[in-house]
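Sequence design from tokenized structure. All designs in this work follow the same two-part layout: the structure record, then the generated sequence. An example of the structure record is given first.
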């Protein structure tokens, strides 16, 4: 009895081993078309018909891929099938397939490890599907529309490096963007930066997730960027991958002024000239002048956009000023601030003027009375001409004048030429002025006396500029220590200051 049990277990074990070995062995497929995966009408299916049928049986295909252990391949298969190329070829006798989908009694089945053992090559379509650097080679026998995976090959493409640098021309400290986002099939990327002498000055690592880098340069010249991309196998890209950018040399601004120092220049034009500005690698297209007072406050600006880049400015107030000029080139770079384009200067107002005055004057004198026994007062009309100086003690407020000349009578005896001189202090208010001071008058008749006078004037400016003016005035001269009746004078005059 015991021997029978041993024999029974031995037979069962042999059957299990035989069954396992039968499953492990390659299944030889001699016939096709009995267990079709899709229903094909007609003798020769076309690729277009196969695509339509597979779309219709998408659910069964998904089930079959999962049963075969390739569920993650279902979606790439369906997506790429729409545009995939169906190639006509034959499965040769003896060719092996990793697995095949078919249907039995309406249910999806999977046959693993198959060898075509028919009498003739099996006509089929072949389709390739790519996923995760691998190529999956599918065959679809034409008589049945079954889907079979023939093989898998590694397909790691070489990295294709792409490098774009923007802008290609920039100014000092402008941002430069390096973009390698166009690189394909890369695991990592690097970019190296070289100066005009070929010295490497920077290296930056990039990734597909972070393919951009921004930098800047503080020195002018040409810079070269060399990129490299490494694929999944660690092989560096071989295609050319380089770009350049040029950092513009800033212009050099040179400033010249028509006066330095600018004495007596209030009211007169001063020229600021930047025509000597240059640009080593382009041209100067604009100069900006900026005028500041002694505290640094900007008083005025001028933008010159045409050669010769000059600005003519009239100053209406004395003071210390600073003028600066900044040149811009055709790339927008501006010149640095140096002693060549920044000047501090003093503008003073003209205080000293020469003057000439002319006009009629009534001089008092004496004549015999009608009975011939006494003298009475009388007046003689003449014309005066005087020259002298005018000096501003406080511009537009107080001035000093010193003049001398003579009065020529329009009639003869007893009138005679008289010499006049005076020094006055004048107060000014807007266009009007009034002055008072001391003078000297020689006698206008033999019977009158020479001596000191108190002189007063009032007047107004007929025209006025910072360098010259014309004034109309009335003058009264009263004698000091002499007879007023016979020694005073009235005058109306016009004087020119220059």
């Amino acid at each position: 009895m015991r021997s029978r049990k041993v024999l029974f277990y031995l037979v069962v074990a042999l059957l299990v081993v035989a069954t396992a070995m039968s499953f492990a062995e390659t299944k030889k497929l001699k016939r096709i078309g009995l267990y079709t995966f899709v229903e094909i009408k007609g003798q020769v299916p076309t690729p277009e018909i196969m695509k339509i049928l597979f779309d219709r049986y998408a659910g069964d295909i998904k089930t079959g891929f999962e049963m075969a252990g390739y569920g993650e391949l279902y979606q790439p298969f369906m997506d790429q099938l729409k545009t995939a190329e169906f190639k006509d070829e034959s499965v040769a006798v003896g060719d092996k397939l990793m697995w095949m989908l078919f249907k039995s009694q309406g249910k999806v089945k999977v046959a693993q490890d198959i060898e075509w053992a028919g009498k003739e090559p099996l006509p089929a379509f072949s389709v390739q599907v790519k996923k995760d650097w691998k190529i999956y080679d599918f065959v679809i026998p034409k008589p049945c529309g079954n889907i079979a995976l023939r093989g898998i090959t590694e397909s790691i493409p070489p990295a294709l490096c792409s490098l774009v640098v923007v802008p290609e021309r920039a100014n000092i400290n402008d941002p430069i963007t390096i973009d390698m986002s166009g690189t394909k099939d890369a695991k990592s990327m690097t970019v190296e930066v070289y100066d005009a002498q070929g010295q490497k000055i920077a290296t930056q690592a990039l990734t597909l997730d972070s393919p951009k880098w921004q930098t800047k340069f503080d020195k002018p010249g040409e810079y070269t960027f060399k990129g490299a991309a490494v694929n999944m196998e660690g092989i560096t890209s071989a295609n050319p991958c380089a770009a350049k950018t040029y950092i513009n040399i800033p212009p050099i601004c040179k400033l010249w002024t028509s006066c330095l120092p600018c004495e007596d220049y209030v009211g007169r034009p001063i020229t600021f000239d930047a025509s000597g500005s240059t640009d080593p690698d382009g041209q100067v297209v604009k100069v900006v002048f900026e005028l500041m007072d002694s505290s640094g406050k900007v008083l005025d600006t001028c933008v010159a956009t045409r050669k010769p880049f000059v600005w003519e400015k009239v100053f209406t107030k004395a003071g210390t000023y600073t003028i600066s000029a900044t040149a811009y080139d055709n790339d927008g770079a501006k010149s640095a601030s140096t002693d060549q384009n920044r000047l501090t200067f003093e503008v003073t107002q003209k205080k000293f003027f020469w003057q000439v005055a002319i006009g009629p004057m009534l001089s008092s004198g004496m004549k015999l009375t009608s009975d011939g026994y006494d003298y009475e007062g009388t007046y003689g009309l003449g014309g005066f001409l005087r020259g002298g100086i005018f000096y501003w003690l406080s511009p537009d407020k107080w001035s000093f004048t010193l003049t001398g000349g003579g009065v020529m009578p329009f009639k003869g005896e007893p009138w005679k030429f008289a010499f006049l001189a005076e020094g006055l202090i004048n107060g000014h208010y807007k266009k009007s002025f009034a002055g008072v001071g001391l003078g000297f008058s020689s006698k206008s008749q033999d019977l009158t006396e020479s001596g000191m006078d108190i002189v007063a004037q009032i007047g107004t400016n007929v025209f006025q500029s910072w360098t010259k003016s014309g004034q109309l005035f009335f003058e009264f001269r009263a004698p000091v220590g002499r007879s007023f009746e016979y020694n005073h004078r009235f005058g109306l005059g016009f004087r020119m200051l220059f």
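Residues 11-24 have pLDDT under 50 and may be disordered. We note this feature because it recurs in several other targets discussed in the main text.
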